[in-house]
Design brief:
The protein contains eight helices and 19 strands. It has 345 residues and is α+β, with helices and mostly antiparallel strands. A six-stranded mixed β-sheet has the order 6-7-8-3-9-10, sandwiched between helices. Strands 13-17-14-15-16 form a five-stranded antiparallel β-sheet, with no helix packed on it. A four-stranded antiparallel β-sheet has the order 2-1-4-5, with helices on one face. Bound molecules: adenosine-5'-diphosphate (ADP) and magnesium ion.
Length: 345
């Protein structure tokens, strides 16, 4: 059970501002994902919470108490790294039991066995307890690394891209397991990643990090549907949001100082050619099909030299060169200023 707060935390390395005036409140039992590209300050943020780095300014609070000066080992947080580091000379059991056998813990051997078996069951690793750590697949090693954090029952889990070294299938499996684990153990988890699928599937709330700054924080739906800036809008969505020049639109209906108009591919309305253009839609445009992928239901259209990506349904078929009537509904358009900030409408 733990709350984590960052209050105006900054951390520099020489001239580089790794974390820039960052404030976040993570609630007890919340799963918060910090999403950002490489160099955004994700690892540094976790290291500051763990006490492996000290902030230059601001405070880290754990359960309401300022953690400055509290040694990492006293913070009761578990750090799970991108590169799992198991003890190669120990079995899976030995690796899982290791944190419990520290002199400070003084757990009984029966207690250790019970805890290790409970965690192994959660992670579906019971049959592998006697394997040497080196005789495991990458996915199994990462499970053991997660298990080693779980046995300690820490207040907070800090996870630094824990799935990024696994292949796509394993990543998906472990992602689902992590979500299930979070439900079961009800822990506070701060998880960082550059992968938007992980972020949107795992998070109660996503914080978008960019150059050490928190651009936006909210539920996946809030950040996706209501991005505060162009960089937040581009961070979520696959295929990505369409960015269009304002010259394609009727300026009478556009807010002043619009530099970019954006629309999600699924918000583009494709009209059925058999029903005539657009059931009388006022805003129908005719665009030319550049490319169509029946596998991904993706349509790429040409609008005055600008590629526009739309998603469509499996039943429809398109061929390059064909003309398609589309609407870009006003309620789906997002407007941004030249500095990237969203213009409220
Ligand atoms: N120990 C360090 N010394 C110097 N620069 C660092 C150190 N740790 C991180 N940085 C720099 O701080 C910035 C943020 O790094 P990091 O927190 O690792 O980002 P991320 O995990 O999002 O990729 C980067 O520009 C990185 O090069
Ligand atoms: Mg990192």
């Amino acid at each position: 059970m733990a709350e984590i707060q960052l209050r105006n935390v900054s951390k520099r390395f020489g001239d580089i501002v790794a974390v820039d005036d960052l404030s976040i409140d993570v609630m007890d039992c919340e799963f918060v994902v910090l999403l950002g590209p490489s160099g955004a300050g994700k690892t540094t943020t976790l290291r500051l919470i763990a006490g492996l780095e000290q902030p230059d300014a601001g405070d880290v609070l754990i359960d309401g108490a300022i953690a400055t000066g509290v040694h990492p080992s006293e913070r009761d947080v578990a750090f799970i790294f991108q590169q799992y580091s198991l003890y190669p000379h120990l079995t899976v059991f030995g690796n899982l039991a290791f944190p419990l056998r520290s002199p400070r813990r003084r757990s009984s051997e029966a207690d250790v066995r019970a805890r290790v078996h409970a965690v192994a069951e959660m992670l579906h690793m019971e049959s592998k307890l006697d394997n040497m750590a080196t005789h495991l697949s990458g996915g199994e090693m990462q499970r053991v690394a997660i298990g080693r954090a779980l046995v300690r029952q820490p207040k907070v889990f800090l996870m630094d891209e824990p799935l990024s070294s696994l292949d796509a299938k394993l990543r998906e499996e472990l992602r689902i397991e992590l979500k299930r684990l979070h439900r079961t153990i009800g822990a506070t988890i701060i998880y960082v990643t550059h992968d938007q699928v992980e972020a949107t599937t795992l998070a109660d709330r996503i914080g978008i990090l960019d150059h050490g700054r928190l651009v936006q924080i909210g539920t996946p739906r809030e950040v996706y549907g209501n991005p505060v800036s162009l960089s937040a809008a581009q961070r979520l969505g696959s295929p990505p949001i369409n960015l269009l020049p304002p010259t394609l639109f009727d300026s009478a209906h556009m807010p002043a100082r619009t530099a970019t108009v954006a629309i999600r591919p699924e918000d583009i309305v494709l009209h059925d050619p058999d029903v005539g253009d657009a059931r009388g839609a006022q805003d129908a445009l005719n665009l030319t099909v550049l490319e169509y992928s029946p596998l991904r239901h993706l349509l790429i259209l040409d609008r005055a030299g600008t590629a526009v990506v739309a998603t469509t349904i499996a039943e429809r078929n398109f061929s390059p060169g064909q003309s398609v009537g589309v609407s870009l509904p006003a309620r789906s358009l997002l407007y941004f200023r030249a500095d990237g900030r969203r213009i409220p409408t």
